[in-house]
Amino acid sequence: MNLVYADEQGNVFDHPDFVALGRSGDMIVEIMEEELIPLPNGATLVSLPFTRPIGFHPDTGEMQVMPGDVQAVGALLPQGFTRLCLPGYVKADKNEKLPLFGYTAVVWKDGQFYVTAEQCDDPEKWDPLNCDRGELGIQVERLLAKYPENRLYKHLSNCALGYECLTSSNTFLGRWEGAVPVSYSCNAGCFGCISDQPDDSGFVAPQTRMNFKPTVDEVVEIMLEHLREPDSIISFGQGCEGEPSTQARIIVEAMQRVRSQTSLGYININTNAGLTDYMRAIVDAGLNLMRVSTISALDDHYNAYYKPRGYTLKNVEKSLKYASDKGVYTSINYLIFPGVTDREEEIEAMIGFVKRTGLKLIQMRNLNIDPESYLSIIPKAQGEIYGMKQMLEIFREELPEVVIGSYTHVPPAALLR
Fold it and tell me: Which residues, including other chains, have CB under 8 Å from residue 103's CB and lie 6 or more apart?
């Protein structure tokens, strides 16, 4: 399996004399054949700025930094695929930070690109190639004309056309899971926030956070427009907003008004679930699905990343348990990272967390972060590092009733209240 690299112009090559290597945390590791799958449809190859690729040179029998003005290459995977290794690289300038993406090791083998990944879900609905850009433009114009005063539609039109966000695109296309953001504020200061970064963070947020408080009427218009099919999902809590439960009053009133007019579809919230009292009110208003973002079930790791304001991981657990007990189909948006998530202590803590809260689904989501910066703020490993592939096998064995996936699903009717 040949090392893949890029030149200064971004052209991608494979090197016949270097065997590709990967990374697990801060360790350079050998890539196993069983970790490789062909580069999926919808994946993107990117060069890693300020890096140099590392490979294994058979002639010397050693790992070696590739000479020349070259950069490491990684793959950005579509939803449905869980990365198993990061690309093998070192930074040419340790002060530089990589853009906030989830980089996966890529190799050249048997005449094609392969990546270190495992398919955990059906990628069909979230394949960017299945979003007709022409049709999207038509539907954006239609809904902006139909609701000219609705600021949420205007905001989402930039998300769909500018950022090519698939969830907001679904809002205009009237299919699957659609977005309805509600909050410009947040009760956490996530280290890897993609919509709001402090000026001194060194990161550039890849999205712009919404900067207004929507009215209940604006929210209801989007919800009723989207909830026209039995399997449609409308979701509070998007990458372009803060924590949706901080606007619980808007959410609760909107849900009550919508459910007085239609029983079609599912109402979902993507949340950190820290505001337990607000979450209970939202659940009681008729919530169907809840996806809670977490990076760990260990307090020190969780706090280092989320920097929670006025809540703890115990509040998150209480919210999830309450929702599960009330018949909400609960899941976690599990931000995973090779060399961290697959640590012995992390696996044990997460299995206990899942069992205590009654979770139905774990959505494995590749963490978008600069690896060195992330590793510098979290606790060091305390036990064995099993590898991502073995971690997935452990979860499936220890949690046989829990679905291992990648995104929000319409749940089996038997699991809903």
Answer: 46, 48, 74, 75, 76, 86, 87, 371
Distance of CA 20 to CAs 2, 76, 113, 408, Å? Answer: 5, 17, 12, 34
CA separation for the pair 127, 166 (Å, rounded): 9
Q: How would you write the chain as a 3-class SS string?
A: CEEEEECCCCCEEEEEEEEEEEEECCEEEECCHHHEEECCCCCEEEEECCEEEEEEECCCCEEEECCCCCEEEEEECCCCEEECCEECEEECCCCCCCCCCCEEEEEEECCEEEEEEEECCCCHHHCHHHCCHHHHHHHHHHHHHHCCCCHHHHHHHHHHHCCCCHHHHHHHHCCCEEECCCCCCCCECCCCCCCCCCCCCCCCCCCCCCCCCCCHHHHHHHHHHHCCCCCCEEEECCCCCCCHHHHHHHHHHHHHHHHCCCCCCEEEEEECCCCHHHHHHHHHCCCCEEEEEECCCCHHHHHHHHCECCCCHHHHHHHHHHHHHCCCEEEEEEEECCCCCCEHHHHHHHHHHHHHHCCCEEEEEECCCCHHHHHHHCCCCCCCECCHHHHHHHHHHHCCCCEEECCCCCCCHHHCC
| Burial group, residue 134, by CB count within 10 angstroms (0-12, 13-18, 19+) | exposed
CA distance 185 to 8: 40
Q: Are 233 and 239 in contact (CB under 8 A)?
A: no
> Tell me: the pLDDT tens digits for 254-268?
999 999 999 999 999
Distance CA 264, CA 227 (A): 6
- Rounded-to-integer distance, Cα 7 and Cα 71, Å: 6
Token pair 């979450």 is found at: 279
Residue 6 token pair = 């890029």
pLDDT tens, 304-338? 999 999 999 999 999 999 999 999 999 999 999 99
In angstroms, the CA 88 to CA 107 distance is: 10
pTM of the model: 0.91
Q: Which residues of the chain have pLDDT under 50?
A: 414
